[in-house]
Amino acid sequence: LMLKDFKPQVSDKAYLMGIVKKQWLKHRQQVVGNERIEQIEISEDNIQIPLTNKLLLYLQKSGAKCMNLLQSFYYEKLSMKQVAGRFAYKSERSATVQKYKCLEKIREEIKQKSLHYEDFFE
Hints:
The protein is built from five helices and no strands. The chain is mostly helical. The protein has one domain (11-120). The radius of gyration is 16 Å and the shape is globular. The two termini are 32 Å apart. The model has no long low-confidence stretch (mean pLDDT 75).
């Protein structure tokens, strides 16, 4: 899936919120185990809304290939073997290293701007 061919059927905000929700549910599953999601109380006062434009800006600065690779792994839940095949890497290890480099690009950009986790929420 190339970025130029990607036509989201939802807004950027909904797209990122979907990723955040999936990651939160995955984390919650690991921490709590099999507790039903309906049993978890969430106070609306504690919900922070991500500044999606800022997040997308840093993702886009990493480049189209990085953005597509990260989307394939985190959002589409492809294995590193599938990611390697999709992006024509020689091995899973090569794809893993490239994913790491993409994340490092984003981390470095954020560090240079002296931003913190809280800066991405209202």
